[in-house]
Amino acid sequence: SGATVIAHPLVQHKLTHMRRKTTPTQDFRRLLREISLLLCYEVTRDLKMTTQTIDTPVAEMEAPVLAGKKLCFASILRAGNGLLEGMLELIPSARVAHIGLYRDPKTLEAVEYYFKAPQELDERLVIVVDPMLATANSAISAVERLKKRGAKNMVFVCLLAAPEGVARFNEAHPDVPIYTASIDEKLNEKGYIVPGLGDAGDRMYG
Ligand code: PRP
Known about the structure:
By secondary structure, the chain is α/β, with parallel strands linked by helices. It has a single domain, classed as Rossmann fold (3-Layer(aba) Sandwich). Helices cover 33% and strands 31% of the residues. Strand 2 and strand 3 form a beta hairpin. Helix 1 (9-19) packs antiparallel against helix 2 (25-43). It starts with a strand and ends with a helix. 1-O-pyrophosphono-5-O-phosphono-alpha-D-ribofuranose binds next to strand 4, strand 5, strand 8, helix 4 and helix 6.
């Protein structure tokens, strides 16, 4: 349990630029896209492989390829799409689930307004993406929803996590590992990650 922190220097450097309040929208988006490529590379390290017989211009060979069904990204709207876009560049054949959730500003409960997922989730690795794990209400309910639709093999990827969110998510879904670029100090009374980077959705889309 806990979370795996992706300490790669490029990830950490880019994250610092994203945190600065003076970073404008266009830079914020570009950095998020770049970080998403690096996070995707790290979380797919252990994908199962098989081999195929191929012909190079010189000889026949047994060459490694990904095994099994195409994986599925599950994006928690809106901000999840910032991570999704970059990851789809690395894995263009991936399937995609969209889960629309907003946080009720008073209760901080996750309220669902959209859910659409591809078939045969049970046979795919499902990579759930959302830049922020704050109270974890959104991530917990998204993963519950995906489990109801059959998903069995999931990981959760975020940029920033609050320690409180990591603990709550681990308790709710001990079978779903968390990957993050940082575990910050705490959650404040409004449910924001401190020091964090503000609201990722607002910084991307306004
Ligand atoms: C933010 C963020 C996460 C969620 C994290 O979304 O993008 O989805 O809050 O908070 P939690 O862990 O306490 O649930 P928000 O509700 O602001 O929606 P948006 O992405 O559409 O802006």
